[in-house]
Structure formats: C-alpha cells, structure tokens
C-alpha cells in the first residue's frame, strides 16, 4: 500500500527525517501467568465444548420464550409446560437483560468427530507462542483446563504448568508420585486404575489416570501452584476460555 501511494504523490525534496530505527517497548510484566481453555486447541483439530461447533453446543437444542408465557403455562398445568419447553425437569436459564427464558435440552445426538485422532494433534501457533514467551523469561506459569497434553508436547516445562482437569496422556503412581507421559491416550478417566504398574524401583503400584470426571475435585497438586502464581502475578492472560 505505501509503495503505491508513494508512486502517486507529487515529488518534494524534503520528506523529513529518514532511516529512523524502530523502538520496541520492553516487556512490562514481571510475572505473567496464562490461563488456557479449549479454544486454543480448536485449530489443532480438537473440538471445544461451548463454541459454535462445540461438543455440547451440537448436543443441545435451545428453546426461547418470554417469562410471561412460561408463567401462564404453569397456571395451565404440567402438560402446558411440557408443550412449551418440550420436556420436563431440564435446564432453564432466565435472562434478565433480554427478558427471555432459555431452555436447554440435551438431545443425545452423536458427538462430533475430531478432524484427526487425538494423539496426532500437534501444538498450535498459540501453544508455540507461549513456549517462546517462557523461553524469553516473560511467561512464568501456565494454568490450563485442557486435557489434550499439547502444552507439554509443545515444550512448556512440567514445573511451570498446572493441568487442572488432568491430561489424557498422563498416568500417575498414587504410591510414589511418578508421572508417565504417554504417546497414547489413557483408556480411563475419573482417576481410575489403569492396566499398567509403576516401573519405579521398589514400587510397582497400579497406575491411575489423571483426568477428572464431573464429581472429582480439582487436585491440590495442580491447584496449589496455580494459586501461588496467581497471587504474585501482575498480568493474567486468558486464552481460549471465558
């Protein structure tokens, strides 16, 4: 654009000072923490949950109606309520701003397919940018909800990473604490025992997966360092999550 514009300008002798060096602002953050969610892995071929083509988005249907219609249906009885919302005892959310009720009904549709097998997904440019920030000494810690293992695969050191929901490629020994980062997806979730045993000398305990199910509490091993770094962070950058 600038080249075409310069060709069309009238000629003048003095265009001002030229050959000026570029000035870059030095990094201002002294303790940057990054929090990541499923959105940073969609470009890797892994669907998210709540996005336009997310797993749960495609599984749920949404009915929208006014609070007045809903109250009127209650007066007419249970059958009228079912006619409006389609099914009983499902998830109902009232939006005060819009003045509407949104009713979410899980329809049991098939899960969307990933564009490639989970274990073949490669880190995105976002993952690699974070690695660059870590190597430059700017990024101090990463906190992730993701279970895809891409932060470790990209090169983020384990001691600078909290995986709050676990890692589909990680097994851990409940006895000695050794972690095993696999090149295959672990068969179970819910902190259950897997078919393998710890190979640490003198241990041999049965390994467990690290991925949480709905009822599982966030592990203190991941939460404590995450809280520690958030308390001293001067910038917390959220990527791929709300």
Structure description:
The protein has 242 residues and is α/β, with parallel strands linked by helices. 24% of the residues lie in helices and 21% in strands. It is built from seven helices and eleven strands. The chain has helices at 2-8, 55-59, 67-76, 78-85, 125-135, 150-154, 220-232, and strands at 32-36, 60-65, 91-95, 100-106, 139-144, 161-163, 170-172, 179-181, 193-197, 206-209, 235-239. The strands form three sheets. A four-stranded parallel beta sheet has the order 6-5-1-11, sandwiched between helices. A four-stranded antiparallel beta sheet has the order 8-7-10-9, with no helix packed on it. Helix 3 (67-76) runs antiparallel to helix 4. The protein is extended. The two termini are 37 Å apart. The relative contact order is 0.16. Residues 77-98 have low confidence and may be disordered.
Unreliable parts? 77-98
What does the radius of gyration come to? 26 Å
Helical amount among residues, as a percent range? 10-25%
* Beginning-to-end CA distance, first to last residue: 37 Å
What layout of secondary structure does this protein have?
Blueprint lengths: L1 H7 L23 E5 L18 H5 E6 L1 H10 L1 H8 L5 E5 L4 E7 L18 H11 L3 E6 L5 H5 L6 E3 L6 E3 L6 E3 L11 E5 L8 E4 L10 H13 L2 E5 L3
Helix pairs in contact: 3-4
């Amino acid at each position: 654009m600038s080249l075409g514009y310069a060709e069309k300008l009238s000629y003048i002798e003095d265009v001002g000072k030229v050959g000026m060096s570029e000035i870059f602002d030095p990094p201002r953050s002294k303790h940057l923490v990054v929090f990541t969610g499923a959105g940073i892995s969609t470009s890797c071929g892994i669907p998210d949950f709540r996005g336009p083509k997310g797993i749960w988005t495609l599984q749920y249907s949404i009915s929208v109606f006014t609070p007045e219609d809903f109250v009127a249906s209650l007066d007419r009885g249970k059958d009228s309520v079912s006619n409006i919302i389609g099914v009983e005892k499902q998830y109902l959310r009232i939006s005060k701003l819009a003045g509407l009720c949104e009713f979410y009904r899980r329809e049991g549709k098939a899960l969307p397919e990933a564009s490639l097998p989970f274990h073949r997904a490669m880190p995105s440019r976002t993952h690699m940018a974070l690695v660059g920030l870590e190597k430059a000494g700017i990024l101090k810690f990463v906190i992730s909800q993701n279970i895809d293992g891409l932060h470790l695969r990209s090169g983020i050191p384990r001691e600078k990473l909290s995986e709050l929901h676990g890692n589909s490629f990680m097994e851990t020994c409940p006895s000695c604490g050794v972690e095993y980062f696999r090149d295959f997806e672990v068969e179970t979730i819910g902190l259950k025992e897997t078919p393998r045993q710890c190979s640490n000398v003198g241990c041999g305990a049965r390994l467990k997966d690290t991925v949480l199910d709905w009822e599982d509490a966030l592990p203190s091993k991941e939460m404590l360092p995450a809280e520690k770094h958030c308390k001293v962070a001067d910038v917390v950058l959220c990527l791929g999550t709300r």
